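User: Some background: our group keeps a shared notebook of sequences we're curious about, and every so often someone picks one and asks for a predicted structure to add to the entry. Today it's my turn. The entry only has the sequence so far, pasted here. Could you supply the structure so I can complete it?
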Amino acid sequence: MSTAETGRRAETVDTEAGPARITWLPAENAKNARLVLAVSHGAGGGIETRDLRALAAALPAHGVTVALVEQPWRVAGKKLAPAPKTLDTGWRGLWPALTAAGLPVVAGGRSAGARVACRTAAELGAHAVLALSFPLHPPGKPEKSRKDELLGSGVPTLVVQGGNDPFGRPAEFPPGEYEITEVPYGDHGFAVPKRSGLTEDQAMEILTAAVTAWLSTLA
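Assistant: Of course. Here's the predicted structure to add to the notebook entry:
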């Protein structure tokens, strides 16, 4: 078992949207911890998704404390996420707990969680944003673009996107001051078909390597 798994702990935080939960996986050498990566889930799932699990397993060895964030609606056992405004309220309420250690905090999330991170980054003073499977538009509706949320983050931003994500393939993303990494053949959950020649482990290695390298460039 890794040091991060050994030190894993859960913290409940009261917010104006209800109690939220942070699962902490500390950097393996606490004295050398460089930053906190706080990542939240999407609108239809929790922190058990393959990408969040992969990051939680990989990053603590690189001086990064991972904070897996469960929004209040998820903690309450509800199946559907509330309106974006309520998601932002929950995230704001968590922020003091995320910054308590005094380390720079990279705000992140997958899908709806990525949108929250982008919308609130400048306001909260996030060090950077990690956007996993950013939902650029609803499937089949490219005219309903959410590009303004991404382009308006105001801080260094990395998008990691599946090559076959129906919510926006990498080639659909607009030019802007952010970086983007593609997980070939990946869908919105970064699942890859057998015909791709990639295994799930290989897909997650692409993702974690890209995120690790990008985090290392942040001053």
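Suggested note for the entry: Strands lie at 9-15, 18-25, 35-40, 64-70, 105-110, 128-132, 157-162, 179-183. The chain is about 30% helix and 25% strand.
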